[in-house]
């Protein structure tokens, strides 16, 4: 039976570390870390996500400044708020909760956020920095996966790493991060010819496919480390991932559960990005 990789505990450790760093910045440098959170409309899931981010800010001592805008907000109005926040020296990070209402172009919004304040790591400049190995903001979910692996003492260097999924927010940055950690990386997607053949090679298998319980034990090598990024609500209201847990946990050596695996890491890494934004904007050496 595989050991569980405890994302709840690891994310809590990271939030505690961020809280210490935020306190240090305030006490020693008189700098308050702050995040502007913008929500357009009242999509229930987005409202829950935004509230969870605000709670994490409260816990870590990061000041959150909230902008709850009506559904009919125009793209111009949103862009001009972003311009104002880009200029505001008291704001370190800017987060626009996605998805946006259909009449607003998400790409234009993402590109308008200053790369210095892009704590979600979605701006093309952040993506470029990641690919050339320069310091910048990294998309929170894949950054969280790297922390799960490192803090569970999984050796990435030299490992055969297979990522299933190539989205801009998970699969692609995940692959870049694993390369940065010296993994040998293969990315699979819906056009991959024999998925099972490829995934069976993995020492580390990261699944971000967006299909409930798709990956069973037949896709997994004995002793592999399996990271399940997926999250779905089943008909019986229970949560599940992209991996069939009861099957894969019989062959893997370590595995993330859903819930309690990758999920809690995303917000913890967002908090860390906010701290790093304040650090970089104030020219402070990383502590
Ligand atoms: P997307 O739907 O954007 O991407 C899914 C990827 O999987 C695509 O690249 C697609 O290939 C590939 N894919 C789909 N079907 C197959 C198949 N049969 N075989 C091989 N590859 C396939 O999803 P996201 O990356 O946004 O999210 C993935 C999962 O992670 C979702 O369940 C989502 O809910 C979850 N998630 C969880 C987060 C968290 O905080 N825990 C954060 C973000 C996402 P192609 O490109 O060819 O279409």
Automatic annotation (TrEMBL):
What Gene Ontology molecular function terms does this protein carry? Answer: methenyltetrahydrofolate cyclohydrolase activity; methylenetetrahydrofolate dehydrogenase (NADP+) activity
**Which Enzyme Commission numbers does its entry carry?**
1.5.1.5, 3.5.4.9
Domain Tetrahydrofolate dehydrogenase/cyclohydrolase catalytic residues, every copy: 5-120
Pathway annotation from the record: One-carbon metabolism; tetrahydrofolate interconversion
- An example Gene Ontology CC term for this record: cytosol
Q: Which reaction does it catalyse?
A: (6R)-5,10-methenyltetrahydrofolate + H2O = (6R)-10-formyltetrahydrofolate + H(+); (6R)-5,10-methylene-5,6,7,8-tetrahydrofolate + NADP(+) = (6R)-5,10-methenyltetrahydrofolate + NADPH
One Pfam family linked to the record: THF_DHG_CYH
Q: Which InterPro entries match?
A: Aminoacid_DH-like_N_sf, NAD(P)-bd_dom_sf, THF_DH/CycHdrlase, THF_DH/CycHdrlase_cat_dom, THF_DH/CycHdrlase_CS, THF_DH/CycHdrlase_NAD-bd_dom
Carries keyword Amino-acid biosynthesis? yes
Coiled-coil positions are none
What Gene Ontology terms for biological process does this UniProt record contain?
L-histidine biosynthetic process; methionine biosynthetic process; purine nucleotide biosynthetic process; tetrahydrofolate interconversion
Tetrahydrofolate dehydrogenase/cyclohydrolase NAD(P)-binding domain: residues covered: 139-281
Any idea which UniProt keywords this protein has? Amino-acid biosynthesis, Histidine biosynthesis, Hydrolase, Methionine biosynthesis, Multifunctional enzyme, NADP, One-carbon metabolism, Oxidoreductase, Purine biosynthesis
Q: Which residues bind NADP(+)?
A: 165-167, 231
Q: What functional role does this protein have?
A: Catalyzes the oxidation of 5,10-methylenetetrahydrofolate to 5,10-methenyltetrahydrofolate and then the hydrolysis of 5,10-methenyltetrahydrofolate to 10-formyltetrahydrofolate.
Against HAMAP family, the record matches this protein to: THF_DHG_CYH
Q: Which family does it belong to?
A: Belongs to the tetrahydrofolate dehydrogenase/cyclohydrolase family.
Summary of subunit composition and partner proteins: Homodimer.
- Identify the NCBIfam families for this entry: PRK10792.1 (NF008058), PRK14186.1 (NF010783), PRK14188.1 (NF010785)
Query: Which named protein is this?
Result: Bifunctional protein FolD
Which lineage?
A: Bacteria, Bacillati, Bacillota, Clostridia, Eubacteriales
């Amino acid at each position: 039976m595989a050991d569980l990789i405890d994302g709840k505990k690891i994310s809590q450790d990271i939030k505690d570390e961020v809280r210490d760093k935020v306190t240090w910045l305030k006490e020693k440098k008189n700098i308050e870390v702050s995040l502007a959170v913008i929500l357009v409309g009242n999509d229930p899931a987005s409202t829950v996500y935004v509230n969870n981010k605000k709670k994490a800010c409260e816990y870590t001592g990061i000041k959150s400044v909230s902008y709850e805008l009506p559904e009919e907000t125009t793209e111009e109005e949103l862009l001009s708020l972003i311009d104002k926040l880009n200029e505001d020296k008291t704001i370190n990070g800017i987060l626009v909760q996605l998805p946006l209402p259909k009449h607003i172009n998400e790409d234009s919004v993402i590109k308008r956020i200053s790369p210095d304040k892009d704590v979600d790591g979605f701006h093309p400049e952040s993506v470029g920095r990641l690919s050339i190995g320069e310091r910048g903001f990294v998309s929170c979910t894949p950054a969280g996966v790297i922390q799960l692996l490192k803090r569970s003492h999984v050796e990435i260097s030299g490992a055969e790493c297979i990522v299933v999924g190539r989205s801009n927010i998970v699969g692609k940055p995940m692959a870049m991060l694993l390369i940065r950690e010296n993994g040998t990386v293969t990315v699979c997607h819906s056009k991959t010819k024999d998925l099972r053949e490829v995934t069976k090679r993995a020492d580390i298998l990261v699944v971000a496919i967006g299909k409930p319980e798709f990956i069973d034990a037949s896709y997994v090598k004995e002793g592999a480390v399996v990271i399940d990024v997926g999250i779905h609500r089943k008909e019986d209201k229970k949560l599940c991932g992209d991996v069939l847990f009861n099957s894969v946990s019989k062959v893997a050596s370590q595995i993330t559960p859903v819930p309690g695996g990758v999920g809690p890491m995303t917000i913890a890494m967002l908090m860390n990005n906010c701290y790093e934004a304040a650090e970089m904007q104030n020219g402070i050496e990383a502590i």
